[in-house]
From TrEMBL:
This is ABC transporter permease. Gene3D superfamilies: ABC transporter involved in vitamin B12 uptake, BtuC (1.10.3470.10). The chain crosses the membrane at residues 12-32, 70-87, 99-118, 125-147, 153-172, 203-224, 244-273, 285-303, 315-334. Its main location: membrane. PANTHER family: ABC TRANSPORTER PERMEASE PROTEIN MJ0876-RELATED, FERRIC ENTEROBACTIN TRANSPORT SYSTEM PERMEASE PROTEIN. One of its GO terms (cellular component) is plasma membrane. Belongs to the binding-protein-dependent transport system permease family. FecCD subfamily. Keywords: Cell membrane, Membrane, Transmembrane, Transmembrane helix, Transport.
Length: 342
């Protein structure tokens, strides 16, 4: 495994080129048979003011369906993978996940409340479901943090508090679902995760949160490397461990909440991608955190391409695709870390 602790310009350039290639391929190819050469000529026509080879309907598929979905997949994947790398760095635990602190359970409860209880709402700039999921995810993390502080704080206490809060919120969600069993299918579909209802509105919704969270996490990556030396050593170097952990947890949870709000629950991205980055590029957080953002974007763009084309014209839930990849990988990591994870 590489031991590189600083991100080289070459590694960053390669990662960005891979991301650009994944976005381009996913935009050119899709369930609708438009022909990749015709789509490429459409893009060139838009850039140069030429004549489009596509009909108005076909052009709408490219610009209003495919492209926003691909970009949203990249943003969601980046958010989940970057948050996963940050959680793993904060806790010093390679099995930490973005949904660890109750974000998923809180988002699921918020979405379920809207589906079951809220009347049909029109005229919203942003639909009530993503807003409720976003608020629920942040609420779940906040409840976990408050419970852990009341119990004395510490990493282990925070993890246990996350498990307790997730179990409680999941129980409440199940109880709410029983109020209207006709909505179970809709809630279940949302919880499987997917990007099939995505558009430019969702892209613009998640983008500012991801930009803020991404900048904070990348700037804190060096401090996470310092924390890995131990709290006493970090304090002697002028770093405040408690403050750093709080800032990183808030930023990672913000990114997770924004991703969950627009995509539902998509698991394993925050576990698989940071580990692959460590295997390929190095183990330092200054390498892992920024490359995880890019790697997560690539991972989810490719996974969504598989989800929407492998059984076309039908579509597989994106969460199923990531689970097929992530579950075996999780078992591999768990076995590899045997005796080292506490």
């Amino acid at each position: 495994m590489p031991t590189r602790t600083r991100l080289s310009p070459g590694a960053l350039a390669v990662a960005l080129l891979v991301l650009l290639a994944a976005v381009a391929v996913a935009t050119l190819l899709g369930a609708a048979e438009l022909g990749w050469t015709r789509v490429l000529r459409e893009v060139w026509a838009q850039l140069t003011g030429g004549v489009s080879p596509l009909s108005e309907r076909e052009a709408a598929i490219v610009w209003q369906v495919r492209l926003p979905r691909v970009l949203l997949g990249a943003l969601v994947g980046a958010a989940l993978a970057g948050a996963g790398a940050a959680y793993q760095g904060v806790f010093g635990n390679p099995l930490a996940d973005p949904y660890l602190l109750g974000a998923a359970a809180g988002a699921g409860l918020g979405a379920t409340l809207v589906v079951v209880l809220a009347p049909t709402t029109t005229g919203w700039v942003v639909g009530p479901l993503p807003l409720a999921a976003f608020a629920g995810a942040l609420g779940g993390v906040g409840l976990t943090w408050a419970l852990s502080r009341a119990a004395g704080g510490g990493t282990a206490v925070l993890l246990l508090a996350g498990v307790a809060v997730a179990a409680f919120l999941t129980a409440v969600q199940t109880s709410v679902q029983q109020l209207d069993t006709d909505t179970v299918r809709q809630v279940y579909t949302w919880m499987l995760g997917g990007l099939n209802a995505s558009g430019w509105r969702e892209v613009l919704l998640v983008l500012p949160y991801l930009v803020v969270a991404g900048l904070v996490l990348c700037l804190c990556a060096r401090l996470l490397d310092v924390l890995a030396l131990g709290d006493e050593e970090a304090a002697s170097l002028g770093v405040r461990p408690g403050r750093v952990r709080l800032v990183v947890l808030l930023a990672a949870s913000l990114a997770t909440a924004a991703a969950v709000a627009v995509s539902g629950l998509i698991g394993f991205v925050g576990l698989v991608v940071p580990h692959l980055v460590r295997l390929l590029a190095g183990s330092g957080n200054r390498v892992v955190v920024p490359l995880s953002f890019i790697g997560g974007a690539v991972f989810l763009v490719v996974a969504d391409q598989v989800a929407r084309t492998v059984v076309a014209p039908a579509e597989l839930p994106l969460g199923v695709i990531t689970a097929f990849t992530g579950a075996p990988f999780f078992a591999f990591v768990l076995r590899a870390q045997r005796g080292r994870v506490r």
